[in-house]
Amino acid sequence: xxxxxxxxxxxxxxxxxxxxxxxxxxxxxxxxxxxxxxxxxxxxxxxxxxxxxxxxxxxxxxxxxxxxxxxxxxxxxxxxxxxxxxxxxxxxxxxxxxxxxxxxxxxxxxxxxxxxxxxxxxxxxxxxxxxxxxxxxxxxxxxxxxxxxxxxxxxxxxxxxxxxxxxxxxxxxxxxxxxxxxxxxxxxxxxxxxxxxxxxxxxxxxxxxxxxxxxxxxxxxxxxxxxxxxxxxxxxxxxxxxxxxxxxxxxxxxxxxxxxxxxxxxxxxxxxxxxxxxxxxxxxxxxxxxxxxxxxxxxxxxxxxxxxxxxxxxxxxxxxxxxxxxxxxxxxxxxxxxxxxxxxxxxxxxxxxxxxxxxxxxxxxxxxxxxxxxxxxxxxxxxxxxxxxxxxxxxxxxxxxxxxxxxxxxxxxxxxxxxxxxxxxxxxxxxxxxxxxxxxxxxxxxxxxxxxxxxxxxxxxxxxxxxxxxxxxxxxxxxxxxxxxxxxxxxxxxxxxxxxxxxxxxx
Length: 507
Hints:
By secondary structure, this protein is an alpha/beta fold.
């Protein structure tokens, strides 16, 4: 089965970018290691649909049958169009009376809602898009069938994912994609937000929708005014607390002379298609599209330049990241250079520290992600007094600026003066002859450990943690010679892994 991913022939697909090739290689390594179900974590802009359809393409070349499962019906046609673009025209669509419905085709594109009512087609490989949204139908299929399952998600934080997927592949981060130009920087403006003090919560620990709606209604005038002041008439997606909240936002935007429309679960299918077709136009007359959640996952219009967050959350970092991600795709055709986030929810402050961590480092394991969506964040009473980045003033800022990269670095544990040619000693243990020797040992350790998904990132981060500095530019991970790893280096890595494991268990 691993042969499905060994051949990097792209067929009609565009050539894979480096991290996409690494993702396919990671899946192959996972299969060889015996993992039937694997999770591919890839941020917005990494091409999750591309990677999922590449997996399907490899399966079909081997005479297998594949199913690409969409989280919602609204994404069916978008995925079908992508499959056509990549040369996978011989596919069926399982959805109502869809004109492409043909269960005999080797590739099926289906919504989980339709599968729940109609059952499964014959499938050897299942690709689950937005796999953090766990539905009983595909979870049971993944656990009980013989099919290989690849989950796709930018935010695999849901509880229980680690019991379904035994391997996490995380080939890149939001920071790396921003540096490469695939994503644009997010410029955050913290605006007036509803007072959620004392608001009731639901059984999941989030604020009740009715509470968020009632309190959000009080500041709609500010939302419209702030957009007119700061939104620069950019193509915009607004997220509201409820459908009624979205409809009132829409009404007030339109009253202010701004063409706005709602896109919710109550929107008729034909109207949805018309709204999407219009909004995708570079010169779309719709400047503001408003939704609760229907636009939060997989909806990709590259020239969206502003996101307005009016949906306060206290636990679900995954939902917040999905919403903000709708505006982060780059758009070279329009010269888009950044995305403005108008935060009328307080989410960017509540989630700042954890979002900063995901932005730069991604996840090491699914258990870490699960903890992110279980933790209740509390509003800080001194938010307005918190200083921004010392270098550029960007807010929110905790440890490392997501705008300019400035970082507060803890004092290095190294006992000697700076200098590449001096021994690297931490505490009373010599780790390496010099910094280059330490770098080469870390490369050797990462390359020899199958559990480390982002090997180059691991090396750079570990080097930074131990020395206080990032590796010099001339240190090449890919050209590093194979060296013996000292016992001191092995021992330190092992002790750090044990310490993190205990911390996760305690959490």
